[in-house]
UniProtKB/TrEMBL annotation:
First and last residues shown, out of full length: 1 to 180 of 1189
Protein species of origin: Salipaludibacillus neizhouensis
Its biological purpose: Required for chromosome condensation and partitioning.
UniProt comment concerning the protein's domains: Contains large globular domains required for ATP hydrolysis at each terminus and a third globular domain forming a flexible hinge near the middle of the molecule. These domains are separated by coiled-coil structures.
Name of the molecule in the record: Chromosome partition protein Smc
UniProt record similarity statement: Belongs to the SMC family.
Amino acid sequence: MFLKRLELVGFKSFAERLSIDFVKGVTAVVGPNGSGKSNISDAIRWVLGEQSAKNLRGAKMEDVIFSGSDSRAALNMAEITLVLDNEDQHLSIDYSEVSITRRVFRSGDSEYLINRQSCRLKDIVDLFMDSGLGKEAFSIIGQGRVEEILSSKPEERRMIFEEAAGVLKYKNRKQKSEKK
Ligand code: ATP
Ligand code: MG
């Protein structure tokens, strides 16, 4: 599995529709301060289901929507699509290419789609759980995260190993069924 493409519309500083193609191997995003490099990683985090505005460096979820500039009016919707190559069936879904879309409107409404079909956030979380790509996973290591991991409590650190080992899904299911 690898990241093939990221499509952004109205997300943070990206007012224009933008499609970024990734090739296999290492991609580095470079640019001056404030040009939107971190906004790209925020976009990936967000489409994978991040619910905390703070983790996206904003105060409220609406802050992910383009808020306007000197030459452009603010937009009412932000949309991100992440396209993954799933040729190796790493994600348990019967498609060789998987796209995940998240939209949010200023009204607060949001939508999630898997392969352009409307779904729940839970479906996205379940799809990525134990794949190494979930929002809690180790695939995105933000600034300060290394230090956070090193200084975290053993129980917190254990979560990372559980995600890596692929047991988190079963643990979550067990907890849910015990609650019922
Ligand atoms: P650095 O090198 O300093 O880390 P960076 O390239 O990572 O910079 P970002 O933090 O990704 O930069 O981008 C910050 C820019 O995004 C700021 O100019 C900020 O005004 C803009 N921005 C963030 N949210 C919005 C929004 N909702 N609407 C418009 N612009 C936004
Ligand atoms: Mg940055």
